[in-house]
Write a structure and sequence with these properties.
By secondary structure, the protein is an alpha/beta fold. The protein is built from 8 helices and 25 strands. The chain has 4 domains: 182 residues, Molybdenum Cofactor Biosythetic Enzyme, Chain A, CATH 3.40.980.10; 57 residues, Molybdopterin biosynthesis moea protein, domain 2 (Alpha-Beta Complex); 94 residues, Molybdopterin biosynthesis moeA protein, domain 3 (Beta Complex); 73 residues, Beta-clip, CATH 2.40.340.
Amino acid sequence: MITVEGLVAEIQQRVENYNNNDYPLNKRAVANYDLLDSCHHILAEDIVSPFSVPRQNLSAMDGYAIAKGTKLATNTTIIIIGESQAGSPYNGDIQSGQGVRIFTGAVVPDECDTVIMQENTNFAAIKSSIDKSKPYSIILSQTAQSDDHIRKQGEEIVAGEAVLFKGKRLNPADISLLANLGFDKVNVYQPLIVGVFATGDELVAIGNELKSLAQIYNSNTPTLKSLLSDLPIAIQDYGIIPDDLDKTTAAVTQAMQECDVLISTAGVSVGDYDFLTTVIEQLGKINHYKVAMKPGKPFVFGELTQNLAKPVLYFGLPGNPLSTVVGTLQFVTPALWKMAGLSHSERPMQLTVMATLKNDIKKSAGRKDFQRGVLTQDEAGSFYVESFTKQQSHRIKQLSHANCFIVLAQDSGNVAAGESVQVQPFPWI
């Protein structure tokens, strides 16, 4: 039985090989998306700025743009001969000793090399008497320096500069940058097709009636879809597969022809009617089966290869909803981000904090434990966490009421209140 850390490493190494050899990123299909539709997708090209930012010298303040060669000492009188507004620049000649009224974001005339804040002039005293149709005088109340308060052309971005790189996961800030540069479309990697299905004769799709006490709703598929909702993938739902070898074989055979990745819930244990491991071995291979963690021990990582141009990686999650959440967060989503072409620095971080335990925890050595808890923070910034008293993996309400996993090492035993423990806040908190 492999450790959690060992399985993470094995999956990441297999995905690395998949990206380099089985389905190299440079051979992936690329789609041209409208800018707004590209958010959360993976950039398939470097983005080069078509122009400098700023495109010209701009004022960083409301005040006065002063001509080159003008004396900038306190009590200097300067003649104001015009005005430069955002979108309406001043286009006349300006001589030494002259300037123009200017506003934040307006173009600084080429003849000017300094912007003086209006607060550093006698503007307040003369404001009511100014006739903008005629030249007027201002007096400096503070000494200024050349280049003050000017946003220089190209100081942020130079024309031809790469501003975003292939493998970037586009976020709202990137959309803003691209919009500022005039991009209305962008090339992203075509989303991976991820097939999902649940197995079990007892399962009923939500929205339908439970007709016997032996039936339960298929909660795992909605759970899995919600966990994967932010990824740049296209989900293909194959529904509920009955506990039948032939039907399971047929469903997996169809899905592996249509998908890049296949994820199942339930059917991977050792029961008489759990057929998935048999089918995976017939159509491909199982790389790892069972992981030393609680909950989620009967986790399967394999691949489907029969009559395929490239392998379809397979993740088999246990049947209870809690195991689905734990297995997806620890193994599946990190693998999918990497498979999608996301650069290493762009992959979502699995954040952890150290917190003081509020109550005793019972644990047996042998498996890494992911216990549900409630994480809080006091006014001083210290973290505290309380574990639920009942930690059975079939409990569903508890997961909804929790906001974190308390992560206990494989070899650890009981943990007493007051000790420091590692905590993984849920990514949706």
